[in-house]
Amino acid sequence: MLFVVSGPSGCGKSTLIARVMRDLGDVRFSVSHTTRRKRAIEVDGRDYYFVSKNEFDAMIQEGRFLEWAIVHGRHYGTSRVEVDEKDAAGDVLLDIDVQGARQVRASGRPASFIFIMPPVFEELRRRLLKRRTEDRASLSKRLADARGEIGAYPEFDFVVINEDLETAAAELKSVIFASRCRPGSSKERIEGILRSFSRERGRR
C-alpha cells in the first residue's frame, strides 16, 4: 500500500519516516528526484536522486513521474518506476509536498494520505534554524510556503501533530496498521477466505 506523507518543510517528516521504517522493518521508502544541490550529510540514491534540470525535464516529457512540483524554487518528483517496484514488494512511504500529494490523489492511485503538522509556527521556525541548511532568503521562503501549506490539512485522511517524536511516531505507525486493515488492502487474502467458505458450503 502507498502512504503519502506531507507537511510543511521543517515539520519533521523525514525524521518520523526514518523512525517508523526502523521500527517496522517492512516498509520501503520511495526516493524522490530533485534538482537541488546535495547537502553534505545526504547520499545520492538514499535521500534523493540528485539530477540536473535537463535530466528532470526529460523525465517530465517522457511521463516518468507519478507527481512532480517546483518547491522552494527547486524541482522535486516521484518516479513511477520507483513506486511501482517498491509497491509490488509491500508498503511504500512517500515524503512529498502538498502539491505532489494532490497529484497522487488526482491520479486515482489507492493511498493513505497523512499530514504532519508542527505544534506551533515558532517551533517550525526553530527546527528550520536548527538545521543550519538555509540562508536567510531560503528560510523566509520556506516559512512563507509553510503558512500556505498548513491550511491543506483537511485534504488528508490523517493528521499527526509532531510535538513529541515518540508520540508522533507511534501515531504514524498506528495509521499504517489501521490502513492495512482496510478491505481493499487485504483484498487477495479476503478473497481466499471467502473461497474457503464457498468450498465448505459445497461439501454439505
- CATH class bucket of the domain at 2-30 and 92-203: Alpha Beta
Second-tier CATH architecture of the domain at 2-30 and 92-203: 3-Layer(aba) Sandwich
Number of helices: 8
Order of helices and strands: EHEEEHEEHEHEHHEHH
Low-confidence stretches: none
Strand content: 15-25%
The main sheet comes to:
5 strands, parallel
User: How many strands in all?
Assistant: 9
**Straight-line distance between termini:** 38 Å
Structural class: alpha/beta
Summarize model confidence as the mean pLDDT.
Answer: 92
Within the CATH hierarchy, at the fold level, what is the topology of the domain at 2-30 and 92-203? Rossmann fold
Report the C-alpha radius of gyration, rounded. 19 Å
Shape: globular
Strand arrangement in the largest pleated sheet: 2-7-1-8-9
Helix percent reads: 40-55%
CATH superfamily of the domain at 2-30 and 92-203: P-loop containing nucleotide triphosphate hydrolases
Describe this entry's structure for a reader.
The chain is α/β, with parallel strands linked by helices and 204 residues long. The protein has a domain at 2-30 and 92-203: 3-Layer(aba) Sandwich (Rossmann fold), CATH 3.40.50.300. It has eight helices and nine strands. The protein has helices spanning 13-24, 53-61, 80-89, 98-107, 121-131, 136-149, 165-180, 187-203, and strands spanning 2-6, 27-29, 32-34, 48-50, 65-71, 74-79, 91-95, 111-117, 158-161. The strands form two sheets. Strands 2-7-1-8-9 form a five-stranded parallel beta sheet, sandwiched between helices. The protein has a four-stranded mixed beta sheet with strand order 4-3-6-5. A hairpin with a 2-residue loop joins strand 5 and strand 6. The two termini are 38 Å apart.
